[in-house]
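To the team - flavin-adenine dinucleotide complex, inputs and output below.
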Amino acid sequence: MAEVLVYVDHVDGAVRKPTLELLTLARRIGEPVAVALGNGAEATAATLGEHGAVRVLTADAPEFADYLVVPKVDALQAAVEAVSPAAVLVPSSAEGKEIAARLAVRIGSGIITDAVDLEASDEGPVATQSVFAASFTTKSRVSKGTPVITVKPNSAAVEAAPAAGAVEQLAVSFSEKATGTKVTARTARESTGRPELTEAAIVVSGGRGVNGAENFAIIEALADSLGAAVGASRAAVDAGWYPHSNQVGQTGKSVSPQLYIASGISGAIQHRAGMQTSKTIVAINKDAEAPIFDLVDYGVVGDLFEVVPQLTEEIKTR
Ligand code: FAD
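Output:
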């Protein structure tokens, strides 16, 4: 069976969930071979093996330390040359997309970004994408070189599948460009303790109907009762009620959680573009004619200031 390279997103050896989802999808199209780089790379092997990685190619070097992408591209290129895989899968994070794009140029391959599903075919892996503000679903296949595919978080349920997870050292020779950029300062953002928006299994979002920065506390309370991330519409962000880093939509982040709860959001096309692939959508809106109700699985017509706190209390009792 052909091998499929999976780029491992980890922090000091702790593997992030989107990588485990990639391993699950990779098994549909071949045998997963993980590529883990930087500090803690070898420590990822146990988790990756539990989730189907037959081999874990690791490399650690000072070049990987500063979150720069070019050294990682150098390493993935070395892995492609060593393995000749059927495809390379990379998580669709901001960093992942840059790595994937640079890799595709390096190895002269086609690329598919933001896939939400993968299947095997005789001609190679077929990726499903949601396009044109989620108005269409397309299936595409790379017709040139080794397919490089980025996959959106929450595209697959993680499935364990014990495999060898044998650690092998990957020899990497760094290109001149790898040392061309230096990180000069780093400022850590204060942690909210909530999951990262694009990776969260549940997202609770607020829009103009929330009517003020201070009122986002009720959205946050519902999110915290569910262990969810908080999102916001552009109207709420533009009003200065919530940070732009939490904006969901065409000019914000694209999310695909198991559950998306929209409160006081009308459902404009640009908002839908960032959340329409969510598995289950719930909306709370006082206007029964709001367009968001066209795409929901469950809709509550009501005042969010009554409905959201009641929902939070109910969830807390469970
Ligand atoms: P509104 O459309 O004003 O809707 C507010 C809703 O809240 C209404 O449906 C109302 O009935 C309801 N409501 C009010 N009070 C209550 C209450 N007490 N209880 C319950 N419901 C209540 N938008 C995004 O979100 N993300 C993007 O990335 C984005 N990108 C854009 C890019 C471009 C190029 C353009 C032109 C627009 C973009 N927009 C984006 C803006 C988008 O068109 C909408 O203007 C925006 O999504 C509206 O936000 P909203 O639903 O919060 O506000």
